[in-house]
Write a structure and sequence with these properties.
This protein has about 725 residues and is α+β, with helices and mostly antiparallel strands. The protein has 13 helices and 35 strands. The strands form eight sheets. Strands 28-29-31-30-32-33-34-35 form an eight-stranded mixed beta sheet, sandwiched between helices. Strands 1, 2, 3, 4 and 5 form a five-stranded antiparallel beta sheet that branches. A four-stranded antiparallel beta sheet has the order 8-9-10-11. The N and C termini lie far apart (about 75 Å).
Length: about 725
């Protein structure tokens, strides 16, 4: 077949350039790399590996092979389908803590084959850059890389990050060639192909370098302190935005870069469609011109009910009147048109705990094809099959194919087969309501072999429990590792926001919703009472030692931890946070002017007319004199300043608090060596404070010796 023919040598690629393309080891450019170890060694699981009946180790979790990376939030599909519909390309990523590097391997798989083949390696994770409060911000979270196939099926274009910048690389689908295509001075945001296959398309932000240079010039006369500055991340102003994208094309024959045509822009961007109602989203156009989308009944109303619509080429728009696809409180996860019917994924059930796939053809009822507690993400349609990444509480992510007529599922590839053989404890999904009647749920995980013969210590992990139980939001609290060491773990899902419990129309905008949530700290009470209700539900299932309960969290989960230590201190015997803290100084001063303005809009008091009572219910700093729950803080260096006032006050009041700062990290920590250290320290921390007899099996270390001094000091200065 033509699609499988070997790739022609690109005329512009010299022998020396080809050598560099094949031998580059971009992982070595990452900060903190140790040695020259190849991080891609063993990137594909061995089909001959002998089954193991051991329990989970920290290394098992850190070294998981990921498709689409370890975060499950992105809707963008990591799967690129070849024009023949019989092959897929995707990137497998794997952390290597020994070299502190990531393996990034581009693989191609025939849909009828049991496993893929590697066609290119190199590069490191690509961080998600977002404009937060108008400032260009590195979130630390990894972006999703979707390979793009050439029209003839011979080549794949994909993004690779080498030496700190993201470029497009072109790889022969048989693995015989790999070379860099773009030489952009700023990161490439996306890539694709021109319809004739003669050019590689790409997008990049405009004006970033110019804005950055202007900031450097401004520094010669002193930076103006304004909304561009976020002190906890650094005093240099950030580039403001968002900035428009530039759509470009590289001619593969000449290497010249030109502006993309209008048609080429639509290939990469989200094309605009005239005549659609305001508030339309999830707009998708199929090859036959059919449009599908969802629209809000009242675009001006927050959380307005949504309905699915369809419009064939030349025909009128038709709304789906079936209950499954109208009056939806939340938008669908994804929409597809297979030529005869609309396929849509949505969440349903108690607190939207279940994922459901429906099929709806105009004039017919919506038919339920598949329903599961697992999550399906990054789905893409090929012929009569939906290819998705699927993961469950006990099952790491794998690629599955779902028949769009019957809902029958077939596993295409499982990159982590060892988890089929590891000894994992029992799990059970629990359901409850919080103080405001909002529904919530969580997954209770028990130690392997637990027979119910003794009370267990419990660790609460927040705040998303959809899919594989890995390490909670931010992936820092290894659930299966905790369970393997004798802990029960409650992985909780945050309930709907407090304002969703109010009558419809009470909060019409996000600012009104924030104000309603902030008043009386009702959103914080909503989350905390949900956690407490979850603990009560766990106690009904198994004996839980009430004197040995711990709580953990990142971001909003960390705020829940600090609120719990202030308002329910007797519930928890130890805590750990990955970011910190909300307080009168940390947020309004080190957060910077833009953050301060956002807080003021949500009802927070002004520094000029402060309200100590307002902060008393939340702030660790304001309550440092009475908090004695041991607290471990493992913070990114770009956020650590937010937690220093709370840490210092707790420390000076004799609270058992310990702080570690990880260099070169952002909100989501990504360096593999850091991730392993965080896993192991969190386990040691809870083993020490919650383990039987105070953790006698914890290996001796400087950490443990310091914690022992804290415990001895606590025993002499604090009466429970």
């Amino acid at each position: 077949m033509v699609a499988n023919a070997s790739c022609p040598k690109p005329a512009a690629l010299s022998l020396a350039a080809a050598f560099l393309a094949f031998t580059a080891t971009p992982g070595a450019a990452q900060a903190g790399v140790r040695g020259t170890r190849d991080p891609c060694a063993g990137v594909l699981a061995s089909p001959f590996a002998s089954p193991s009946q051991r329990t989970v180790s920290a290394g098992d979790l850190v070294r998981l092979r990921d498709i689409g990376f370890y975060t499950g939030f992105a809707r963008k599909s990591p799967l690129g389908v070849a024009p023949d519909g019989r092959r897929i390309g995707y990137v497998i990523t794997r952390a290597d803590p020994e070299s502190n590097a990531w393996c990034q391997a581009l693989v191609v798989q025939d849909l009828g084959a049991p496993e893929p083949r590697v066609v290119d390696t190199g590069g490191t994770y690509i961080p998600v850059i977002r404009y937060i409060r108008g400032n260009r911000t590195n979130t630390g979270a990894p972006d999703v890389i979707r390979p793009a196939w050439s029209p003839d099926g011979k080549w794949i274009a994909y993004r690779k990050r080498v030496d700190g910048i993201t470029q497009v690389w072109r790889v022969c689908a048989d693995g015989s060639e790999s070379h860099q295509v773009t030489h952009s001075h700023v990161d490439v945001a996306d890539t694709g192909w021109s319809p004739d296959g003669k050019s590689v398309l790409f997008t990049r932000e405009t004006g970033v370098l110019e804005a950055d240079e202007a900031i450097k010039q401004e520094g010669l006369g002193g930076y103006h302190f304004d909304a561009r500055t976020t002190p906890f991340s650094g005093m240099e102003p950030a580039v403001s935005g968002p900035r428009p994208l530039e759509y470009l094309a590289v001619d593969l024959t000449t290497g010249k870069v030109r502006p993309a045509t209008e048609n080429e822009r639509h290939i990469l961007g989200e094309p605009t469609f005239e005549g659609l109602p305001a508030g339309s989203s999830n707009v998708t156009q199929s090859r036959d011109g059919t449009l599908i989308w969802t629209t809000a009944s009242d675009p001006k109303l927050l959380m307005s009910p949504r309905t699915i619509w369809l419009k064939n080429s030349g025909g009128p728009a038709v709304a789906c009147t079936a209950p499954a696809c109208r009056d939806m409180k939340r938008d669908v996860e994804a929409l597809f048109w297979d030529g005869t019917a609309v396929l849509f994924l949505k969440r349903e059930g108690w607190a939207d705990a279940r994922t459901v796939l429906y099929r709806w053809a105009p004039g017919a009822a919506a038919r339920r094809l598949l329903e599961t507690e697992d999550i399906l993400m990054g789905c893409t349609l090929t012929g009569k099959h939906l290819l998705c990444a699927r993961e469950g509480t006990r099952q790491p992510r794998r690629i599955v194919s779902i028949d769009t007529r019957t809902g029958k599922e077939t596993v295409i590839y499982d990159p982590n087969p060892v988890f089929q053989h590891l000894r994992l404890g029992r799990t059970k999904r629990l359901y409850w309501r919080n103080r405001y009647g909002l529904p919530a749920f969580g997954d209770l995980v028990l130690p392997p072999g637990y027979a119910g013969n003794k009370p267990l210590p419990l660790i609460v992990v927040q705040y998303i429990t959809r899919g594989f139980l890995r390490g909670g939001t931010g992936d820092e609290y290894p659930i299966w590792l905790f369970a393997a060491h004798g802990f029960a773990v409650l992985s909780v899902q945050t309930p709907p926001m407090f304002h969703e419990s109010l009558p419809a129309g009470t909060a019409r905008t996000w600012q009104e919703a924030e104000a309603a949530d902030t008043k009386g700290w009702r959103e914080r009470w909503s989350t905390l009472t949900s956690v407490l209700a979850g603990i009560a539900a766990a106690k009904k299932e198994v004996p839980i030692d009430p004197a040995r309960i711990g709580i953990t969290g990142l971001s909003d989960g960390a705020t829940t931890v600090q609120f719990a230590l202030v308002n329910a201190p007797n519930t928890f015997a130890a805590a750990a946070v990955s970011s910190c803290c909300m307080g009168p100084v940390s947020m309004r001063v080190t957060g910077g002017p833009a953050f301060y303005a956002q807080l003021r809009g949500a009802g927070y008091p002004s520094l000029a007319k402060d309200d100590p009572a307002f902060w008393k219910a939340l702030s660790l700093a304001e309550n440092a004199g009475r908090i004695r729950v041991p607290l471990l803080m493992q913070l990114a260096d770009h956020e650590a300043l937010l937690g220093l006032d709370a840490y210092t006050l707790l420390h000076d009041h004799g609270a058992p608090v310990d702080l570690f700062v990880f260099p070169g990290e952002y909100h989501t920590k990504a360096q593999p060596a850091h991730r392993l250290a965080i896993y192991e320290r969190n386990l040691a921390w809870f083993d020490f404070w919650l383990g039987e007899l105070g953790g006698p099996d914890v290996p001796q270390s400087d950490d443990v010796r310091r914690w022992r001094e804290m415990r001895e000091s606590l025993a002499t200065t604090h009466t429970p």
